[in-house]
TrEMBL record:
It comes from the Bacteria. This is Phosphoribosyltransferase. Gene3D superfamilies: 3.40.50.2020, PRTase-like. The keyword Glycosyltransferase applies. Residues 6-183 form the Phosphoribosyltransferase domain. It holds the Pfam family Pribosyltran. GO terms for molecular function: glycosyltransferase activity.
Length: 208
């Protein structure tokens, strides 16, 4: 469906063109894979660009399967998960240590953009369970923005519906909701990992 993240970012930017040149729009990219798309969308809309820092909580027997997500201030867990409270507490502590380090990397020379009264568009390169983006939306909601949007190239239909039902999300834009969804990468011809160094450089270059 997408050649690479640049192609996906350009397609998202076209879909969001009604927000071009509005003064209070902030693009909030989820590192690391969301940053190449976020930079393209922010440039196209003439908007500000920042990052949202959160990490998924993996299942104890399959770390790739997200059972929740954590930010520096919030935690969200899937309903009906049979995982011990002890495991959740340990993971929360471990992931928050990682997030503190990542915050120090991404905000070496600047402060996060204040999101109060802003139209915040949260962008990632695609989502599976949606847990990471949901905890990000909760984090943004606490800052009292004017509007919270989620914009992604690809996601399962059920996840998009779950996001649309969330009280703290005003709008969801998703380009494709394929039936046979297994992983985000299957819908990209080129889905190379984005390193922290690359993501930080994209952010710094945009804001320089």
């Amino acid at each position: 469906m997408f050649k690479d993240r640049i192609d996906a970012g350009e397609q998202l930017a076209k879909k969001l063109s009604s927000y071009k040149d509005k003064e209070n729009v902030v693009i909030l990219a989820i590192p690391r894979g969301g940053l190449p798309l976020g930079a393209i969308v922010a440039k196209s809309l003439n908007a500000q660009l920042d990052v949202a820092l959160s990490k998924k909580i993996g299942h104890p027997f399959n770390k790739e399967f997200a059972i929740g997500a954590v930010s520096l201030n919030n935690i969200i867990l899937d309903d009906n998960i049979e995982v011990s409270i002890d495991y959740i507490e340990k993971e929360k502590k471990r992931l928050r240590e990682k997030l503190k380090k990542r915050q120090a990397q991404y905000y070496k020379n600047r402060f996060p953009i204040a999101l109060k009264d802003k139209i915040v568009i949260i962008i990632d390169d695609g989502i599976a369970t949606g847990n990471t983006i949901r905890v990000t939306a909760q984090l943004v909601y606490d800052q009292k923005p004017e509007k919270i949007m989620i914009a992604i190239p690809v996601a399962p239909k059920s996840t998009v519906q779950k996001l649309r039902n969330a009280t703290y999300v005003d709008e969801v834009v998703c380009l494709e909701t394929p039936f046979n969804f297994q992983a985000v990468g299957q819908f990209y011809m080129d889905f190379d990992q984005v390193s922290d160094e690359e993501a930080i450089k994209i952010l710094e270059d945009f804001n320089s």
